[in-house]
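Can anyone check this?
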Amino acid sequence: MKKNWLTLPVRSRVNNAYARHSSYLLKRSGWNIGNLVFRKGLESIIRDIDSYSLSTWEDLTRIAFDESSMTVISCANWLGTSDADEISNRRRADLLDGVKGRCVAVGLGIQALHGERIDMGPETVRFANVLSSKCPILSVRDEITLKALSQIGINNAIVTGCPSNFINLDLSRSSFSSGRDRIRGRAAARIQDLRLMISEVSLTASRSSDVLRKIMRILADSNGSSYVLQTPALIPFLYGECDSVHPRYLEALADTSLILSRSRVFSGVDDWLFAAKFSDLSFGMRIHGTMVPLQAGVPSVLLAHDQRTAGLARSMYIPHFSIDEFLEETIESMAGLMAARFFDELDQYLLMREKLAGRFLQVLEVCGFQPRIQFERLGRPSV
């Protein structure tokens, strides 16, 4: 039996990143280190996933599939509307056509800005149909993706959220008690007096320059806080491979010393989780940059900036602010507001997490794959 995991060339860490150039880390993580977090979640969901051979899209041309083959497909925001999406999805559809046996596709998503019309091109539609034909049921990230698929006649999908939601299968309300106590103990303090883990700004988002300037003001007056990088915007600079930073950062900063002193990059999710554990509060524009501290038991709030992040936040009941809300509030009131939003919505998040685990179990069972026993207990509490 051939067991393949169609994914990046790595699981949830990039080994020996310290000895390589930044391009090695970025290429192997799919040009966004947050992709490793998605894969860490799958390791918690699918039984014996370590026995699956890692395969990239190009590897599909060299694999001899048969009806006994089993293929796990780590999806991404492949349902985009750009010319580049059309080119990529034409290739994906051609390659996926040759896959035989059982398939499970996890976490398919739409990529679109707020207010952008979701009008997929013919190659993206063709790819979605090929993927749908390979899996009895599709796991999609949010209601927006579910609706977009339904509009092109694909009706075998179910909303599951993101696998990163299940990295820590022991997560409970008590997991956040120490974080709550630390924040309450500093109730009169400003947000700068907390140890913050702030995820990288998405520079393509609307009003991202305003968000960046506000975050940099917070960081400049905050000891012990970190700004976690995921994309190529700053990582080569942090590696010391270039002297310049992205122009948006130059607009927000008087000099680059703040970026050098506060930025962090992780080559593996376990190290990222461990570092997050020592934070009091986390926020930022990256969904996986939010999920890591959340899974480590740290109060975390997402700044939802497009249809994808907002859709995921709603699907998983992740406490979140809109960009307008974040920008309208004063820095002095931010800590109390974020903590209140998080703890007011925590029970709803945990209840939805159990419901989404049950949906993931349905996807695995219908597609003929086995869940991890601990994950099955979460999704089926009576087991």
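Reply from J.R.: I decoded it. The longest strand covers residues 70-74.
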